[in-house]
Design goal:
The structure holds 2 protein chains of 2 kinds. By secondary structure, chain A is mainly alpha-helical. In chain A, strands 1-2 form a two-stranded antiparallel sheet. Chain A has one domain. By secondary structure, chain B is mainly alpha-helical. Chain B has a single domain, classed as ABC transporter involved in vitamin B12 uptake, BtuC (Orthogonal Bundle). A 3-stranded antiparallel beta sheet of chain B has the order 3-2-4. Chain B has a two-stranded antiparallel sheet with strand order 1-5. In chain B, a hairpin with a 3-residue loop joins strand 2 and strand 3. In chain B, 44% of the residues are buried. Classes of the chains: A mainly alpha, B mainly alpha.
């Protein structure tokens, strides 16, 4: 039985990697029609495998769970790869932002399910006002060149507190007006319908990402000036603090529905393969287009040599912050998707020890390799969570501990034998560096800027 | 650290420039008061909380300060290892906190399983009981220190040495890997087991209270109203920590080994050319740091009387923060930083909220690095790539 299980698992891992290769190849196709058609087919294939044909399912619940976990892990790890692999900032805060995203999105849909629109209203307004505030303060800060970081941070902090207060005020004022639209349990109103719930879920995930990004902006602004090692420790501290806050959501923070250390239950399970696929592909496309733009080159130049980048006129502080914020945005989106797949959030999931997983994935896949990160995330989840958990589970009760004994050994061997990661710089299909198109009309082949 | 100014003006290179002084002469520099005002406000809030609470109940305040001192002196012993290792190889030795944990566990096994703390009574039956306790406890501590030293040298040789020329971040990831390995290998049932283990002390903890003189407290007796309590383990921790500081100062400043250590930390290739065995010195540094961590581990376990395999993570991180706070690479700095960290943690637990005790450590780290990037006692040291 074990041999058969092993074989099937290996086949599954190989199939999922082949599938990823196919998706990336389709995405890289020149023809837009084929691209979109191919994506729909790629979506449909897995969707068909997930369907239940009278008791026969190719992908069981266990497999689909792994699939969703792998999708969220890919988003988180891609964000971390942008921060660490492409921009060279050793961050351990990714898991904290993942947790922020998960709790934010879960709170919005949970409250919505109870007929309370305040979650969506306050969080949505807060994120929008916060974003506007950041843009406004940024204009001010740019006018006074050379403003010390602490002063900038103070201005942003005052601004975000004000934005938050306004959002809470308006949200609380608007909420009673929406209450009748929810209806009662016998006669549900228009806002309680499943379609609206799906839209709210979509918005909640976006808001979660934006909220994580804004928090990372506020946190990153002062902390990114610290330098690599200190930045690493400060971000580790951030993860620890976030987890402490999660344990005390009902005592220190005013969120009794999150139930502190006991864990938040009753989150509607809204993540379907459609949403997971949509967000995953969106993150991959944004990431790839970002990396191969001039912004992406600026981000990578900061990693290579800060002094040289500065000499070339690149605003090093800005690009560090930019990469950090976008990476956290991906983590927040991943968290939102994860929360609605699992339906239960507990602070233990966001422990900073578990937070080393995305880092290990990025290192295994190869720093600065998007393909490597994607493949390593899927491989990681399917191999370790799927295969190894089942296999080690048959060995005894200590299986989870043994997994954590084996990771560091693998990590040490990797660092000694192949420090550039398993895939190194290999990129597949869509993620390959695009050939520079020369303008046909221009006689002097002026390479686009 | 911030490279803006140092790369522009060579005369300023490496000098500690506070965050508000980096852009003199540009329009934004005039707005530095916003950040300073924010910090002052923060400081005023902290001072307000402390002063009002001190006036309300000075004895309780003093009690918190005492428990903060106990924590601080333990952190000081761990912080030494961090600061020495970082000073020499520029590596945050994440595994240091776990070496501390191993020290606690070794003493636990020595006492509970092998009764090592009573060996003098078994060998020399006529010995007075006081002497038995002293010699037995010292043996346990020494054993822990030796095991920790051996462990640290092994880690250094196996994991860090092959990566000496690799990018620093590779070594940091390796350090995290080693730390994980120690924690989870220790959590296996045939090693230490993942449970919280009640720690059997090699000697009795005696508590005294101060009220019109010093009186010993009976077991189970509550301290009388309006008194201050302290225990013998507190005194031992303070004494051991101060002793370690003096020893280390002597080692670094007055011996040939210390001179070689300072040379290695200053410039490795040149030190090697001068005939210094750089690898040996690095191993020696790890060994000394680990020995002190082992001592700290035993005392920590005796003071707080419960151990488990992830015991070392948070004290380790806080000790690192203490080392940064004092100025990394500086031994008196680590000591002062650790005392500040201990106070901050104890007073936060007492007056703000217990769960935020970990948050305050990292807040202090960020504020200190922004205001004074090299720490309190830090010397000019640019970040070597």
């Amino acid at each position: 039985m074990e041999l058969g299980f092993l074989l099937i698992s290996m086949v599954k891992i190989a199939a999922i990697l082949a599938y990823l290769y196919g998706v990336l190849w389709i995405l890289g196709h020149q023809n837009r029609g084929i691209k979109i058609g191919g994506l729909i087919v790629a979506f449909g294939v897995i969707q068909a495998l997930l369907l239940d044909f009278g008791g026969f399912q190719v992908l069981t619940d266990f497999d689909s769970g792994l699939l969703f976990q792998a999708c969220t892990m890919t988003m988180v790890a891609l964000g971390l790869n942008l921060i660490y692999g492409f921009n060279g900032q050793f961050s351990l805060a990714q898991w904290g932002f993942y947790g922020i995203g998960a709790y934010t999105a879960a709170d919005i849909t949970y409250r919505w399910g109870l007929g309370d629109a305040r979650g969506l209203l306050i969080a949505g307004l807060g994120v929008i006002l916060g974003g506007l505030m950041i843009l406004a303060v940024r204009r001010l800060v740019r006018r006074y060149k050379g403003m010390p970081v602490l002063s900038q941070f103070t201005l942003y902090l005052i601004g975000s507190v004000m934005a938050g207060a306004v959002a809470v005020f308006i949200g609380n004022a608007l909420n009673p007006g929406l209450a009748p639209l929810f209806g009662v349990s016998d006669a549900p109103g228009i806002l309680a319908s499943p379609v609206v719930m799906q839209i709210v879920f979509f918005l909640a995930v976006l808001i979660a990402g934006a909220f994580a990004a804004e928090v990372s902006f506020l946190f990153g602004l002062p902390v990114l000036t610290l330098g690599s090692d200190y930045f690493g420790i400060a971000t580790l501290g951030f993860s620890i603090v976030i987890q402490t806050l999660m344990v005390n959501t009902d005592t220190l923070l005013p969120f009794p529905e999150m139930k502190g250390g006991r864990g938040m239950i009753g989150i509607p399970k809204l993540t379907t393969w459609f949403w997971a696929f949509l967000f995953l592909i969106a993150v991959i496309i944004i990431m790839r287009n970002l990396i191969y733009s001039s912004t992406g080159r600026a981000i990578m130049s900061v990693r290579e040599d800060e002094t040289a980048a500065k000499a070339m006129g690149i605003d090093v502080a800005f690009y560090k912050l930019f990469a950090f914020v976008v990476g956290s945005l991906f983590a927040g989106i991943g968290g939102g998707v994860y929360a609605h797949y699992i339906g239960f959030l507990s602070p233990g999931t966001f422990d900073f020890l578990v937070g080393f997983n995305p880092l290990i994935i990025v290192v295994f896949g190869g720093l600065g390799s998007m393909t490597g990160t994607i493949a390593a995330s899927f491989g990681w989840i399917f191999f370790l969570e799927g295969l190894l958990r089942v296999l080690l589970g048959q060995m005894g009760t200590e299986a989870p501990t043994w997994r954590y004994v084996l990771y560091p050994i693998a990590l040490l061997l990797l660092m000694l034998l192949r420090p550039q990661g398993l895939l190194g710089n290999v990129e597949w299909g869509f993620l390959k560096r695009p050939a520079i198109k020369l303008r046909d009309a221009a006689p002097t082949a002026s390479v686009s800027k | 650290m911030q490279q803006t100014s140092s790369s522009v003006n060579p005369s300023l290179a490496g000098r500690a420039i506070p965050a508000w002084g980096r852009h003199r002469g540009r329009p934004g520099a005039r707005l530095a008061w916003i950040g300073q005002g924010f910090l002052l406000l923060l400081a005023a809030a902290v001072a307000y909380v402390l002063v009002t609470n001190f006036i309300k109940d000075p004895l309780l305040f003093a009690q918190f300060v005492l428990s903060g001192l106990q924590l601080g002196f333990v952190y000081a012993m761990i912080a030494l290892g961090y600061t020495m290792v970082y000073g020499i190889v520029r590596l945050i030795n994440f595994a240091h906190g776990d070496v501390f944990m191993v020290g606690a566990f070794v003493s636990f096994y020595a006492v509970t399983r092998f009764q090592l703390h009573v060996w003098p009574a078994a060998v020399f039956p006529g010995l007075s009981s006081g002497l038995v306790v002293v010699i037995g406890s010292l043996t346990v501590v020494l054993l822990s220190m030796v095991v920790c030293t051996a462990l640290a040298i092994t880690i250094e040789r196996v994991a860090y040495k092959p990566l000496r020329d690799a990018p620093r971040i590779a070594a940091l990831i390796t350090a995290i890997g080693v730390s994980f390995f120690l924690e989870f290998f220790g959590a296996l049932y045939f090693v230490f087991s993942p449970r919280f283990i009640p720690y059997q002390r090699p000697f009795e903890v005696v508590t005294w209270y101060i009220k019109n003189g010093i009186h010993p407290m009976q077991a189970g007796q509550a301290p009388p109203e309006g008194s201050l309590t302290f225990s013998n383990i507190f005194l031992i921790i303070v004494a051991a920590s101060v002793l370690v500081q003096i020893l280390l100062q002597f080692l670094v400043r007055r011996t040939k080994m210390g001179k070689a250590m300072r040379a290695t930390s200053f410039d490795k290739p040149t030190a090697r050319l001068m005939g210094i065995n750089v690898d040996g010195i690095i191993s020696f540094t790890f060994a000394v740091g680990a020995a002190f961590a082992g001592l700290g581990g035993v005392l920590y376990a005796i003071a707080y009387s419960s151990i488990w395999t992830q015991l070392g993570i948070l004290p380790g991180l806080k000790a690192f923060v203490a080392a940064v706070l004092g100025g990394i690479g500086s031994i008196p700095g680590a000591f002062v930083g650790a005392l500040i960290m201990g106070q901050a943690e104890a007073l936060t637990m007492g007056y703000i909220s217990t769960p935020m005790r970990d948050a305050v450590a990292f807040t202090i780290l960020i504020v200190v690095l922004l205001v004074r990037p090299t720490g309190i006692f830090g010397e000019a040291a640019g970040e070597k790539a």
